[in-house]
Amino acid sequence: MSQRTLHTLFKPKSVAIIGASNKPKRAGNVLMKNLLSGGFSGPIMPVTPKYEAVMGVLAYPNIEALPLKPDLAIVCTAAASVPAIIETLAQFGCKVAIVMASGLADEVTEDGTSLLTQTQENAHRYGMRILGPNSLGMILPNLGLNASLAHTAALPGRIAFVSQSAAICTTVLDWANNKGIGFSSFISLGDANDINFDELLDYLGRDSKTDAILLYIDSVNEKRHFLSAARAASRNKPILVIKSGRSIEGTSAAKLHTGGLTGNDAVYEAAFRRAGMLRVNDLIELFAAVETLAHSRPLQGERLGIISNGGGPAVLALDELILGGGKLPLLSAEIYQRLNALLPKSWSGQNPVDIGGDANSVRYAKALEIMMDSEDIDAILVLHSPSALGESIEIAEAIAKTIASHPNRNRINVLTNWSGEDSAYEARKLFSKSRIPTYRTPEGAVGAFMHMVEYRRNQKLLQEVPQSIPVNIPADATFAREKLQQALAQGKTILETHESRNILNAYGLKTIDTWFTNDAKQAVAFANQAGYPVALKVQSPDIHHKSDVHGVVLNLTSDLEVEQAAKAMIERVMSINPDARIEGLIVQKMALTAGAQEIRVAVANDPVFGPAILLGEGGSEWEPTKDAVVALPPLNMTLARYMVIQALKTQKLRDRHLPLGLNMHALCVMLTQISHLIIDCPEIATLDLNPVLCAGEDITLLDVNIGLHTEPVDNASRLAISPYPKELEQIATLKNGNQVMLRPILPEDEPKHLAFDNSLSDEDRYKRYFGVRSKMTHEEMAVLTQIDYAREMAFIATAIGEDGEETTLGAIRASIDPDNTEAEFAMAVRSNYQGQGLGKLLLEKLVKYYKDNDTQVLTGFTMFENRNMASLAKHLGFTVTFDMEERLINMHMDLKASASE
Q1: Which residues pair with 858 in a beta bridge?
Q2: N-acetyltransferase domain spans which residues (predicted)?
Q3: Is residue 804 classed as helix, strand or coil in its secondary structure?
């Protein structure tokens, strides 16, 4: 992931077009035309042996004849010539190329190597990067660079658009130009075989010219890099994504389109949500979202006021708002009185505010002014339906002037919907020029508003402090993994309840008492041991669902019933499938289900994102996309709670209000325990808990099936999101003999870490923050504690105080650039623990971590006054230099060199 190369892609000073042409409708001709018309100020160098000049620009017969090394090369030739061209360009010193040819993966050389593989090898050998193949190109309006095959240029703006589909690119571009919406960058990824979403998200997330990012995705290949980059970028700016393949047929078509892996759409949805991105379902939603992002500010709250000149559109907007989970505020007495004095007696008297079908520009403007004065409203939607008065334009002008002059214009977002076509077109155009969001329908306007709300909620969720799980999770997974590996050694691919109980119990999960036997008489003995009533089940690897062969009998109450049921069950299975292998009978004590509710929890192994946790109603058949909500591990209590809320909100889980039934806290504990189990045990491929009996705080797993991976699994990359690295926990001893725990920081540490930061002396704070700094807010501390272990690290030192509570004594953190080149650290230790060797322990641990992580350089800066920090760094092998002008001490360690010493 080379961000340095991407700087060349986004800021080229010269461009070469390989395959430039004078023939109309050829790719090389369209490229030249677009480049010359875009206003790019750098050299544009056509390369072709066929012409002395292309469109009046001197051409060069081959790459070697170019007068200078191009920053960017655009390859417009047929697929067969691409590998050789890329090798020549790379040897010549070009670092980035856009490849427009398609079909490279389908054509092979004489030795059987595909053209795509050969192209990639030739590029990687010289450190060259490729956008594409099958790319439409890219447009950078701020540079006047139109290096694309698009039929029109893009206007300058502050939205970045990245798409795997060229057709979607041109569609969005056409619409945006009509609306007067511009872009900071417009990029067609094509097949994304090299430069991919993750690198572009890292770049665009830091790009000062980009305020929002839009993605069109067919498939994701680098799951961890993608989610890590998306999570980082979404903290700073909204990311909207439209994902094809919501249906099974659509998924197959998407795979044919880009050749990527196909994954479950519900898992994609969960991944987007976890990364803080907003998903839109179609182009109409996408256009509405672009309109909102281009012309609005971040919401200060979620309360929407509605002004309309008709009841019908107001009701449509209200329905969309309430059904979407939005908030409709009541009008305060003051606002009501002011509106009552302005409007006809027939006005609605409430929010939505129906100002009457005869409302003119004056009434609209005054009503909007009054609503913008309200402290109870965060956004206002102004609706207008065609009127016989014909003041559509005048009203729009009055609305725009009112917004521009109102003192609350930066606090309250105003959205507009001018319904109709001919009568509304000019008004919508006026709003677009005035940078006021405008929509064709009331529903579209409210939908766009709810995208803003959802983004705000996602950001607040990322700042929530999770509750620590209130159970003891095993210090390591040795016991569970031994059991699983024993099962694999015995050739088993599925473990049923009786084989799984000890594994699940070790993680605090409660199962029902279960026995396994091959003999009907022994089943009777086990039933007596369990105590009646019992359930009897047959186990056979050839039976997918026991209920299909009546392989489950419940509420057996006597020895005779058990023996008869066992014999009848075996006979029935054999009569249905004579070749079925019957491994034995399972005897279970019946759980007391009165007043309890049955649900289903599962873990599926998605081909794109790996393990995913599913939650829904009980039943033998379910389709995750339709019947369950999905979340990616690792889960904590906050994320588990969000998952349950999503399940209830979408009716994937129904609270049946039984006497015992669902308990939020207990459900979250169970889901978090399952997350720990899946993280610790890579042998587990699938997990099906069906049913799970919820009886208030008592949750019991009645029937369990664990599916095992039959092939070795790369545990390092198995999970889409890096889990808490428990292996980095360390007990250390200070000079005074006290023991401390050195470990990575957790989101749950936020309150104690805030207390630690507030405990620093004024002098320590001055040294830590390079000046006077106010105390941290919750939101700021949430960012520091909810870190992505894939791209940053923070170690804290903790000890148990006299009150039995854990206290943070010191902390060190470092963030790393996406290229894993350089990490920059900062450290702080409580005043009363300084001089005990704690700083040395923390810095040594950080150095070791980044050496093991293959990072190249570790740096830090401190003030002249902090000579102790400089001395410690020098003692540990840092090169220490003094910047007299900035009055800073620079600490630098070449980790590669020190690792080899």
Answers
A1: 823, 893
A2: 740-896
A3: coil
Count of other CB atoms within 10 angstroms of residue 61: 13
Which residue reads 């770049």 in tokens?
203
Q: Which residue from 461, 320, 437 is spatially nearest to 379, judged by alpha carbons?
A: 437
Q: How far apart (Å, rounded) are the C-alpha atoms in residues 111 and 96? A: 27
CA distance 860 to 849: 16
Q: Which two tokens stand for residue 837?
A: 């060797």
CA dihedral 769, 774, 778, 781 (to 10 degrees): 0
- pLDDT bin (cut points 50, 70, 90) of residue 259 is very low
Indicate the pTM of the whole model: 0.88
Predicted pLDDT at 1: 43
* Residue among 357, 373, 363, 426 at smallest CA distance from 399: 363
Confidence of residue 245 (pLDDT cuts 50, 70, 90): low
Whether the Cβ atoms of residue 449 and residue 289 lie closer than 8 Å to each other:
no
Residue 737 CB-density burial (10 A; 0-12 exposed, 13-18 middle, 19+ buried): exposed
> Out of 79-83, 126-130, 486-490, 738-742, which region has the weakest mean confidence (pLDDT)?
486-490
Contacts (Cβ under 8 Å, ≥6 apart) of 125: 87, 90
Distances 214 to 240, 289, 745, 761 between C-alpha atoms, Å? 5, 9, 32, 44
Give the whole-angstrom CA distance, residue 108 versus residue 106: 7
Q: What average pLDDT does the segment 288-304 reach?
A: 84
Q: What is the pLDDT of residue 471?
A: 46
Token look-up 């929530």 returns 464
Q: At what angle do helices 283-295 and 442-463 cross, to 10 degrees?
A: 70
Reported as a single tens digit per residue, the pLDDT across 204-216 is 999 999 999 999 9
Q: What single string gives the DSSP state of each residue in 325-383?
A: T-B-PPPPHHHHHHHHHHS-TTS-SSSSEE--TT--HHHHHHHHHHHHT-TT-SEEEEE
Q: What is the pLDDT of residues 438-491, one digit of tens each?
A: 999 999 999 999 988 988 887 777 777 677 665 455 555 788 888 899 999 988
- The arithmetic mean of pLDDT across residues 189-203, rounded, is 94
Q: Give residue-wise pLDDT tens across range 594-644.
A: 788 999 999 999 999 999 999 999 776 788 778 999 999 999 998 999 999
* Arithmetic mean of pLDDT, 392-413: 96
Pick the closest to residue 465 from 288, 659, 613, 638 (CA basis).
638
Q: Six-digit token pair at 527?
A: 């039933």
DSSP 656-713: ---SS---HHHHHHHHHHHHHHHHH-TTEEEEEEEEEEEETTEEEE-SEEEEE-SS--
Give the integer Cα–Cα distance in Å for 861 and 836: 22
In DSSP terms, which residues pair with 584 in a beta bridge?
Answer: 539
Which of helix, strand or coil describes residue 622? coil
Cα torsion at 229, 231, 237, 239 (round to 10°)? 80
Q: DSSP assignment, residue 60?
A: B
What are the residues whose beta carbons fall under 8 Å from the beta carbon of 765, sequence distance 6 or more?
772, 773
pLDDT at 389 over 80: no
Q: What is the pLDDT of residue 353?
A: 97
- Dihedrals φ, ψ of 91, to 5°? -65, -35
Amino acid letter, 644 = V
